[in-house]
Amino acid sequence: MLKIQEIREIIKLIDQSSIDKFTYEAEGAKIKIVKSSGSVASATPVDVQTSLPDVQDSTSGAQVVTQTAPAKMEAPVEVAAPVAASVPVEKTVDASLKSIVSPMVGTFYKSSSPESAAFVQVGQKVGTEDVVCIVEAMKLFNEIEAEVSGEIVEILVKDGQLVEYGQPLFLVKEN
Predict the structure, then answer these.
(1) Which of 150, 152, 156, 140 has its CA nearest to residue 90?
(2) Which end of the chain is more exposed for a tag (fewer CB within 10 A), N or C?
(3) Coil, strand, or helix at residue 84?
């Protein structure tokens, strides 16, 4: 069976391609991804699995249906429209500023431990490979690099806050 990270990567690849439907079967398990521009797909027979929930990719609106049980059930498959990340918009953003965004869903941490200093502060210069924060996902702590050189102008999230894929974390004024 595929791991959740592998399923997420497949979702990302399908979302970036022109493929509308994707099915994968192996060892009695079945994964079906249906991409739709509308908000509801037609009713289709779906195998029901009681142990694993369906995974909804909030960035693409694609629904992943994992199946292992042989029971059949008629059920409509709804594909929700993409949901924007809940980032409060308080002011207009300067077009010259670049965003450092979260590459995954997880928990944002400004330092490697509660006792440690933050990786970056407002006004600090960063390089493209400098670690600016950690995003913890499924008990894995992922160091996030700036990927842009410049000065940190604003930190958009709080320590310990849940972040979405593609959500802006920092604003950087490029050199």
Answers:
(1) 156
(2) C
(3) coil
DSSP letters spanning 133-165: EEEEETTEEEEEE--S-EEEEEE-S-TT-EE-T
pTM of the model: 0.48
- Give backbone dihedrals phi and psi of 132, rounded to 5 degrees, phi first: -110, -20
What pLDDT is stored for residue 80 in this prediction? 47
β-strand partners of 99: 171
Per-residue pLDDT tens over the stretch 12-31: 777 777 787 888 777 777 77
In a shared domain, residues 129 and 159? yes
Residue 68 structural domain: 4-78
Contacts for 38 with CB less than 8 Å, ≥ 6 apart: 79
In this structure, what CATH number is given to the domain that contains residue 136? 2.40.50.100
CB 126 within 8 A of CB 117: no
In the numeric block, which tokens belong to residue 136?
């913890």
